[in-house]
Amino acid sequence: MANCIRCGRTISGFTFGKKICAWCKQYEAAQRGEDTGYQPVMAAPWKRNDSMPMLVTQLLFGINVAVFVGMLLSHVSPMSPSSADLVAWGANLGSYTLTGQWWRLVASCFLHIGIIHLAFNMWCLWSLGELAERLYGHVTFACVYLLCGIGGSLGSVLWHSSPIVSAGASGAIFGIAGAVIASIKLGEFASGVMAQSVMRSLLAFVGYNVVFGLLTGMTDNACHVGGLATGLVLGALIAKGAPEPRLMQRMVVMVLVAALLGGSGYALWHSRGYRYLLMRAGDQVAEGKIDGAIPLYEKAAKVRPTSARAIHYQLAQLYIEKKDLSGAERELLQVQVLQPKNEQVLYDLGQVRLEMHNTAGAQQTFEQLLASNPQSAEAHAGLGAVAFAEGNTGQALKELAQAEALNGRLEGVHEQQGACLLRLKRYDEAIAAYQNEITVSGESPEVERGLAEAYKAKGMTAEADAALKKAEQVGNAASGG
Questions:
Q1: pLDDT tens-digit series, residues 421-452
Q2: How far, in Å, CA of 169 to CA of 407, rounded?
Q3: Domains and CATH numbers, the chain
Q4: Out of 16, 194, 277, 312, which could bridge 334 as a Cys pair, Cβ 3.0 to 4.6 Å?
Q5: Kind and range of the H or E element at 11?
Q6: What ranges in 15-97 are assigned the alpha helix state H?
Q7: Is the separation of the CB atoms in 156 and 224 below 8 Å?
Q8: What share of the chain is helix, strand, coil (3-state, %, to 5)?
Q9: Which residues form the catalytic set?
Q10: d(Cα 206, Cα 253) in Å, to the nearest integer?
Q11: Closest CA to 142 of 248, 54, 241
């Protein structure tokens, strides 16, 4: 192999005479006004004259530093920020990014995991930014940086099936390197010798950092590869399709790559969005943030309607926990539409309606449960509760007796019997019923208060005081007090 004496490009070793490459011949012919159809020349970045060659690079540098200063002012550790702090400031985390917080794909590119991470990335940005910005111009360079950053963030989400916290400008920086590598390889410059030298430096930079990441396990190589791949595509399209700095041609390239990234993001959301919504909702419930969990479950039900039954039932339980009975009734009715004979759903719906003082609706629901399963102790217990609420104590005792006969260990039956017997002033039987409830389901403030009332009616003051004290203790223990 030999080199062109004009530009230094590698040419075939079988070239005789003056070793001038075909591109230089075409370029010289074009300079003479001949129509050769040669590849348009890209202005070499080291030869372009620009009064502000690093305008965008400096702006990006400043944003990264400003974000880090903001983190410090909010008392985030300068050396090792916690995962919670990073997520709060916009780090890329698949379970958040793919569940609606798409802005993290960009925000994470300006966020760094400590001052050392920031310093290294800013050094790389300053070095590569000047070269790339001179090559592409301000607008194209800014678009390349942002699209490569998004590509890196998507690469991280794609590779890590279990979400990890990812942040830093390295995905965008690798993308810049990839874009320049592709442009030098596929484009045409006035100085091939200098281009080859730059190419070697960029390849060394990429290779070293990839190997370093693999050996140390301290970097998100998936983000690096995603950014690099996006940059290679951008650089190739610019070199072959829009080498001259014409805004419309460059924007067509950017829109095309943005569409590819958007399609990739949609595919990721389609494959993992449902699972991540449930994951986030479960985390919110575990943290006691019911109001945060509800919209996530609602969104999951829309994403996968075929699994809506379980989600609507979970929503009903959350609404019950937050005392939103109308919301619980609404969700249970949606489950009932999907599973009209589900006994647990019918029982829960009857209980919710009973708490809403909708005795007619509760009775209808419990009767529907009884029709579905004549041996349902829960249906008889529910009908007993309805009768008690309507003041029909005798009927309530009959229904509760049937429930006890079907399932003597059903929680709440003996407590309800105690309330009925207390109303009928049959105090000894009421005390026995409440004690049976303690045996079946353990101590509870409601049962102890019922016992206290029965003891007091019998003149057993000491026992009544002891029961009230026990009710307070049990209540405090249940609430964590």
A1: 999 999 999 999 999 999 998 888 999 999 99
A2: 64
A3: 2-31 (no CATH), 55-271 (1.20.1540.10)
A4: 312
A5: strand 10-11
A6: 22-31, 55-73, 83-88, 94-97
A7: no
A8: 75, 0, 25
A9: 170, 224
A10: 24
A11: 54
